[in-house]
UniProtKB/TrEMBL annotation:
Residues of the Glycoside hydrolase family 3 N-terminal domain: 35-323
The organism's taxonomic lineage, starting at the top: Bacteria, Bacillati, Actinomycetota, Actinomycetes, Streptosporangiales
Protein name: Glycoside hydrolase family 3 protein
GO molecular function: hydrolase activity, hydrolyzing O-glycosyl compounds
InterPro entries given in the database record: GH, Glyco_hydro_3_N, Glyco_hydro_3_N_sf, NagZ_Beta-hexosaminidase
Family: Belongs to the glycosyl hydrolase 3 family.
Entry-linked SUPFAM superfamilies: (Trans)glycosidases (SSF51445)
Entry keyword set: Glycosidase, Hydrolase
Pfam family, any one: Glyco_hydro_3
PANTHER family reported for this sequence: BETA-HEXOSAMINIDASE-RELATED (PTHR30480), GLYCOSIDE HYDROLASE FAMILY 3 DOMAIN PROTEIN (PTHR30480:SF16)
Length: 499
């Protein structure tokens, strides 16, 4: 059976490709005019709010029903503020504060920003229960390790976003929190005894009326011992549709990730995902070109002609995507969304970041605030692919604004040799020393550098901007539970005594 134009258009009606540049390329304009469902924006597409609004307006000129999606979780995973760092803390910090009303307010404010920019679906929040502190890809993107806490904040985030007319998309179903493998590179596996806890936030989000669910590329042997969730009818149709009763759009995590594409190719994984029960394919984090988008479309259409994908399943997927587009079009303007509780000293995001900081004093030396401009050492790990590596973070820059004369040294893996650290200690002599780390427990080189520095400087302050495994490091230990710009600002205020 040949691939007709109608079949190719039907395949396009379930695709969310990425693309390069601040303006839509010609191929994307053409495909949108032919019925392409939507697009996924990344930081490479974003220069500022006004530019994004122009971009999304240009997309709608080609297809008024286009769905425009973005990974805007706030905190570590930000696209709109990738150049500056997020003005809102991430999920873990919100979980530490555990003020559900605040989480909903921040999500509503975020939704208003997205809606003003013309973005209609946010691939957030992460509803993963981060029960494994060694998780390399979730961590601070989760609201915490307690399923009930994650559930109540995921629901609040969904309410906030959707009150602004932006569809929320909980991820990574059925739960990526208790894994040690990053699905960008391999296939994580969910232990049977964690499934019930992992599912709770998703089940509650479904009851809350979440419009979309993003699949995780992980193996769930208690449901399917062979296929990762994204490709498993037992997980997507049997569990999510039938057991949990979800009727909205199921969209895949980036389909080019190795956990699914390594075995089947990008096109083959896409066709299998639709056959399993997914309604939309997200692609383009790493393959943002016309050839990839065309290859996926053709592979889905070919799967229909070969009898591997029933055409009515593909048509049902396209219908769900159209219904979501209709909801976003009729959901109203966010102009009446008011940021309740915003403070004149930086807004609700900074207020939330301040509330999340935890300080443990083990010594009266040094006293806080710092008595002089310090030497700040920031140990910089390599981040996972979900986090834009160019997004600025740290304490040194905001602290220099509060304590002029602050010196900042940034060091990556391989640079923290003994001689280099000794030179640093010499340069810091006579100044307070502040050591900033990020997930130190997951990076042996950071732990070793900390040991070296703290053995020489018992008075040093440690600021942990990742997930803290311990709070007994340094004379003072400050945990921000996030590396967003506002988290660095909140820590700097404590160090400088301006809070």
């Amino acid at each position: 059976m040949p691939m007709s134009g109608d079949l190719l258009r039907l395949a396009d009606a379930v695709l969310f490709p990425g693309f390069a540049g601040h303006e839509p390329p010609d191929w994307l304009r053409r495909r949108l005019g032919e019925g392409l469902a939507g697009v996924a924006l990344f930081s490479r597409n974003i220069a500022g709010p006004a530019q994004v609004a122009r971009l999304t307006s240009a997309l709608r000129a080609e297809n008024p029903s286009v769905l425009v999606g973005v990974d805007e979780e706030s905190g570590e995973v930000t696209r709109l503020e990738a150049a500056t760092g997020s003005s809102r803390p991430g999920a873990y910090a919100l979980g530490v504060v555990d003020d559900v009303a605040m989480t909903e307010t921040l999500a509503a404010d975020l939704g208003a920003d997205l809606a003003r920019a013309g973005i209609t679906i946010d691939f957030a929040p992460s509803a993963d229960v981060n029960s494994n502190p060694d998780n390399p890809v979730i961590g601070l993107r989760s609201f915490g390790a307690d399923p009930a806490l994650v559930s109540r904040h995921a629901r609040a985030f969904v309410r906030g976003l959707q009150s602004a007319g932006v569809a929320a998309c909980v991820k990574h179903f059925p739960g990526h929190g208790d894994t040690t493998v990053d699905s960008h590179h391999g296939v994580p596996e969910m232990a049977a005894d964690t499934v019930e806890d992992a599912l709770l936030p998703f089940a509650d989000a479904v009851r809350e009326g979440v419009k979309a669910v993003m699949t995780g590329h992980l193996l769930v042997p208690s449901y399917d011992g062979e296929l990762p969730a994204t490709l498993s009818p037992k997980v997507l149709t049997g569990l999510l549709r039938e057991e949990l009763g979800f009727q909205g759009v199921i969209i895949t995590d980036a389909i080019e990730m190795a956990a699914v594409a390594a075995a089947y190719g990008i096109g083959g994984a896409s066709a299998r995902a639709i056959a399993a029960g997914a309604d939309a394919i997200c692609v383009g984090g790493e393959h943002a070109d016309e050839a990839t988008a065309t290859g996926i479309r053709d592979a889905i259409a070919a799967a229909v002609t070969q009898g591997l994908l029933p055409e009515d399943r593909l048509a049902d997927a396209a219908r769900r995507v159209r219904e979501l587009a209709a909801w976003t079009a009729s959901s109203g303007s966010p102009s009446d969304v008011v940021l309740a509780g915003a403070a004149g000293d930086g807004g609700a995001g900074l207020v939330a970041a301040r509330r999340a900081v935890r300080v443990v004093r083990r010594s009266t030396t040094p006293a806080l605030p710092l008595a002089a401009a310090p030497h700040v050492v920031e140990l910089v790990p390599e981040m996972n692919l979900a986090i834009d590596r160019h997004t600025p973070w740290g304490v040194g820059e905001p602290l220099a604004g509060l304590l002029p004369g602050t010196v900042v040294t940034r060091m990556a893996a391989g640079e923290t040799t003994g001689p280099a650290l000794e030179r640093l200690l010499g340069a810091a002599a006579g100044r307070p020393l502040v050591v900033v780390v990020r997930d130190a427990h997951r990076h042996p080189w950071q732990e070793e550098a900390l040991r070296h520095l703290l053995s020489a400087r018992k008075d040093a302050v440690v600021v942990e901007m990742g997930l803290p495994a311990r709070s007994d490091l340094g004379a003072v230990h400050i945990a921000t539970y996030g590396s967003a710009r506002v988290c660095g600002q909140a820590a700097a205020e404590i160090l400088a005594g301006s809070l």
